[in-house]
Amino acid sequence: MKRTKEQWQALIEAQLNSGLPAAQFCQQHGLDDKYFSLRKKQLRQPVPESTFVPATRASNMPPTGASALTLTYGRCSLQFNDAPAATWLASLVQALS
Hints:
Elements: H1 5-18, H2 22-29, H3 33-44, E1 69-73, E2 76-80, H4 86-96
């Protein structure tokens, strides 16, 4: 029987909530314990988050050519009264990625 990702996630959740060892849970539910463990490992691995952050010009930003710079990501902001050197800014972005 081919199961969807959602079905596997539900089975894994059911095993975790049951308090049973995976092998015993699989035996009770007619599952291959090795394949169950493989799917559990695959689905528990975090999905890599994209390191790309789109840049947009906020309506409250100074016009082009002004020296002020504000970097905002989520609820965090970093404001510069004078624009930093491009190489320093590139190093900052690289360090944060």
